[in-house]
Amino acid sequence: NFKERMTKSCVDMLHAYRVNCASMTSAGQLILPESLKLLPLCMSSIRKMPAFRAGTEIRADEKMAALIRVLGLPMPLTAPLIYPRVYTMYPLPERAGNPTGVGDNVHMPPTLACSSDKMALDRIYLVDTGYNLRLYIRDEVSMETLEDVFGVSTVEEVPAALAVPEELPEAGERILAVVWQIRRERSRLPWQPLSVVPSGSPEESKLLATICEDRVAGEMNYVDFLCHVHKMVQNKTD
To answer: What are the b/e assignments for 178-188, b being 16+ CB within 10 Å?
Structure first.
């Protein structure tokens, strides 16, 4: 089983560091060297990727397509595929989406942890998986917010509004500026399409399946996986 071998390799590395490199520490403490602090997080996320999911919820051809994508992606796109970047698009920080004064570049908003617990119900987020961009409109975003940001009164009208950027309010223009900044940084890589994902739509389940710190497809959330790895390291030490 690929996933179990991968987890065992993670445990073996952390155990080897604990035994051979770490100074005296509490037996109940998980020791993560600086260079491997993100290893359990990446392992947890990889286990949830469509290419490696167990069960029948994903068809064989979809798994194969996902595996080919993983194997064929350029290195700059591998990191956001494993751990998608989540940006808050509403409300935007003051400078986000405004010019930096260097070429066509704009200031980027800060990223959030890729966890639904961090996403407020009355906000709009941009999820960057490396091969596509999804504008996620949460279910408590008000009609007033849609008017302020996109100049429309319903979620269904947002895609059409984004297709006519010259008619967008300033907040909408800044959102598109952030999208174009991401695309410019990957100008030699495959084009990243932008889609709008309203809460409650069929596409929402696909988006939520990429939120890798959550419990997805029967896999543990990140905190539980970290505790699981810690327990395995302790058992190996004992």
So the answer is: bbbbbeeebee
CB 25 within 8 A of CB 234: no
Cα–Cα distance measured from residue 127 to residue 160, given in angstroms and rounded to the nearest whole number: 20
Displacement of CA 62 from its chain's centroid (Å): 20
Token pair for residue 214? 């959550």
> By CB neighbour count within 10 A (0-12 exposed, 13-18 middle, 19+ buried), where does 202 fall?
exposed
pLDDT tens across the length of the chain (238 residues): 888 999 999 999 988 888 888 766 666 677 788 888 899 999 999 999 888 887 777 888 888 988 888 888 777 778 898 999 999 999 999 999 999 999 899 999 999 999 999 999 999 999 999 889 999 999 999 999 999 999 999 999 999 999 999 999 999 999 999 999 999 988 777 788 999 999 999 999 999 999 999 999 889 999 999 999 999 988 887 7
The letter for the amino acid at 49 is M
pTM over 0.85: yes
Task: Say if residues 196 and 137 touch (Cβ distance below 8 Å).
Answer: yes
DSSP state of 219: B
Pair of tokens at residue 201: 């739509």
Distance CA 222, CA 212 (A): 8
Say how many residues make up the chain. 238
